[in-house]
Design goal:
- The protein has 8 helices and 9 strands.
- It is an alpha+beta fold and 308 residues long.
- The chain has a domain of 102 residues: Beta Barrel (Ku70, Chain: A, Domain 2), CATH 2.40.290.
- A 7-stranded mixed beta barrel has the order 1-2-6-9-8-7-5.
- The two termini are 13 Å apart.
- GO terms for molecular function: double-stranded DNA binding.
Length: 308
């Protein structure tokens, strides 16, 4: 697997360097579009509607249309946004797991410890297991600020993206408000039907029959020689970009970071009782934490993290 993102989880003042990998993949058979007359590959060109010239991807900007006006946003504009270079997964809350609505969950990533010592990674994993809570996090991927959760799957920390609250549609279906009367016999029969299908979930028992049959069809055509020469009809395939490797990051002293994090959380009440003039609250802003010695991973995202 190829890492699509390199950064660090920030847990108080604890820094946990990690690499992220896509946890899922699509098993559907991929197809190209071809000309039915000769099997030639159909390709699409990016062509400017003003000058008519073919445009390379590197020369394309993005535009936002607002009525009669259009605003062009360049790569430099995106890079200037505050989250464009953020390589941290920041833990902002630990919440009861049952409060996470599955409808908000999105794509999943495996997180691999990227430091020379995995101790801080193991500590966070153990803390999540012992608390029976889920860590709510914010992070940046593909130049966008994202919401997510950290959880444990087996022995691996998993980052699961989440939708923002305003991205989940609200519905008002008339049928669900019906007051149709359900008899006790109907409820009894429905319950009996549920019991007949009741079992433990075993995902490996399920198979995509359509893809299996499609693969059999393709294999049969290959075996029968019902084929075309790929290079003659499609041309050469561009080489894939080289994989980018990330360097190891240093981990802050674990015990000291944990103690400092707890001290900051308790600091507000202690300072008040001791007559201190400091007005900072426990668990202050990230900028304050960095000034107090919290280390941030010096690694930068590889080019693959922007395009993955």
């Amino acid at each position: 697997m190829r890492a699509i993102w390199t950064g660090a989880i920030t847990f108080g003042l604890v820094n946990v360097p990690v690499k992220a990998y896509s946890a899922t993949e699509n098993h559907d058979v991929s197809f190209h579009q071809v000309h039915d007359a000769d099997g030639g590959r159909i390709r699409y060109e990016r062509r400017c509607e003003v000058c008519g010239e073919k445009v390379e991807y590197k020369d394309i900007d993005k535009a936002y249309e607002s009525g009669d006006d259009t605003v062009i946003v360049t790569d430099d504009d995106f890079e200037a946004l505050p989250e464009s270079d953020n390589d941290e997964i920041e833990v902002v809350q630990f919440v009861p797991t049952e409060q996470i609505d599955p409808i908000m969950l999105d794509r999943t990533y495996y997180l691999e410890p990227a430091a020379k010592s995995p101790k801080s990674y193991l500590l966070l994993r153990q803390a999540l297991e012992d608390s029976d809570r889920t860590a709510v996090v914010t992070y940046s991927l593909r130049q966008k600020t994202r919401l997510g959760v950290l959880r444990v799957r087996g022995k691996v920390l998993v980052l699961q993206g989440m939708l923002w609250a305003d991205e989940v549609r609200s519905v008002d279906f008339k049928g669900v408000k019906s007051k149709a009367k359900i008899s006790s016999k109907e409820k009894e029969l429905a319950g009996a039907l549920v019991e007949q299908f009741a079992s433990d979930f075993t995902p490996e028992e399920f198979e995509d029959d359509y893809q299996v049959e499609l693969r059999k069809l393709i294999d049969a055509k290959l075996e029968a020689g019902d084929t075309l020469d790929t290079e003659a009809t499609f041309g050469e395939t561009p080489d894939e970009a080289d994989e980018a490797d990330g360097d190891d990051a240093d981990v802050v002293d674990l015990m000291e970071a944990l103690k400092s994090s707890l001290d900051r959380r308790r600091g507000g009440s202690k300072q008040k009782s001791g007559g201190s003039s400091s007005g900072k609250k426990a668990g202050g802003k990230k900028s304050d934490e960095k000034k107090s010695g919290g280390k941030k991973s010096s690694k930068k995202k590889s080019d693959s993290s922007k395009s993955a």
